[in-house]
Amino acid sequence: MSLTILTLVLTLVLAVPLGLWCKKVLNHDVPFVNRTEEFVMKKLHISSREMNWKQYLLAAGLLAAVSFAVLLVILLAQGMEFWVAFNTACSFVTNTNWQSYDPVLSLDWQAQAFGLTVQNFVSAAMGICVLFALIRGLIQKQKNGLGNFWQDMLGTLLFILLPLNLLVSVILAQQGVPMNLNSEQYSALSEPVAADSQGLILEDALIENGQVLVDGKPVQDAVIITEQRIPGGMAASQIAIKQSGTNGGGITAANSASPFENPTPLTNVLENVLILLIPMALCFSFGFMTKNRKQGYAVFAAMFILFVLAAAAVMIPELQAMDMEGKEARIGVASSALWSASTTAASSGSVNSALNSMNPVSSMICLVLMQVGEVIFGGAGSGLYGMLAFVILTVFIAGLMVGRTPEFMHKKIEPREMKWAVILCLATPVCILAGSAISALCPMEGLDPGAHGFTQLLYAWSSMGANNGSAMGGYSTAGWLLNGLGGLLMLAARFVPMAGALAIAGSLSAKKPLADNSGELKTDNGMFVFLLILVVLLIGALSFFPALALGPVAEFLG
Known about the structure:
With 558 residues, the chain is mainly alpha-helical. It has 17 helices and 7 strands. The strands form 3 sheets. A 3-stranded antiparallel beta sheet has the order 2-3-4, with no helix packed on it. Helix 4 (82-93) packs parallel to helix 16.
């Protein structure tokens, strides 16, 4: 429990200065940063003129399309099957990092570094850029420009993500995470082990004179294993941005439960802090950018309260059961439970335990954290612009209750903004429910029977539809259904809300601010925080209660 408190306190302490720095970089308040951006853009012959929301979206879409094409070629060149490569390219371009393959067996270190790690940086930076474009739209007065996408990308990459992850990479490498130019190494085992023809370890096997015996009987086609395969490559740099950019894709199938990704208690705390750090910091950036810190604190408070309640709801059943099944012994139950809450709240998807072994109540909370749109704290940038859509929705509902035209940040909220806010809020639920429904009609192989099997199915599509990337397992990841349809839903769940955020930004930016008045709804006090939390939970409950009742609720009651 002390490590849980340490993790949250350390994240909060680091988030405030990082949030201020993000604001300075994206608001162009640092002369050195500005000169560097201008120099690079001049050398690359990129215009620095401001873009309207459509141009900003087009630039982001162009970068995503080129990234997708390049990554797809890299993966196909590695021999990856087409639908798996398609799904993986969609996954990493959309900041999801769903992995339908074994990283150690499928990719060498060059593909990991120049394909996947690059996309971890680009996808995280894109979410941050769109968020700041939305913030500019909220505070600007009768302007069409939302900034320059390419300049924002350069600033985010060069002065936020690269410095942070360079420091973290050094710490991880010092703690034992591989950082070399070797795809793999082999080490002799102290004792040989036996496996059957399917690769499953034979726990009770006896090896004598090169023969494998179980209960005194020889096992046909058994394999004697004398060496351990150790992954290499530039792992430390990939693990750093995987966590800080809320990406989640690891270098091993075990992800952060593996000692090659998460070797010590220090790395476990550090990586958990990184999962929450940037999404939390951007709440403070919002307050600094709008020159209304109370507004930033209000949004942060809503997210933090929901996160603490969710983390407690995940941890309590796990601690009561104290079941070590699926838990890494080095990490323990409490740290595994906190990590599971963090990774589903912050759209990370990295795991340090087997989610399939969680208590039904704990797994339900993780599902809900994804299903509300991952706005608690959500992905890098995307979590906050998703929450701001909920803020606009809450302002509209509150305005209906008191009979006033809704306003936010002194801008009138009209039908155009409301339509886009609803699209933004419902994009994730629609993608999740559509994928789950189609998959239920064409069931995936390998699911457990009964309610738990449905929970596995629902979790898979919630993870892809919410751009999370974690998985409970228990099903086949082969074929076009999960990989093809899943890839398309990941693209929709990423870029439809992004388009909505920019459309709202463009509409609000062109408006004339309203003067203060005594009847204006305050959006920076405790009452509004309560209303915002209520709306977020209601949207999730109304969208997913029937599905949850068929899965984790039925499993718990059964």
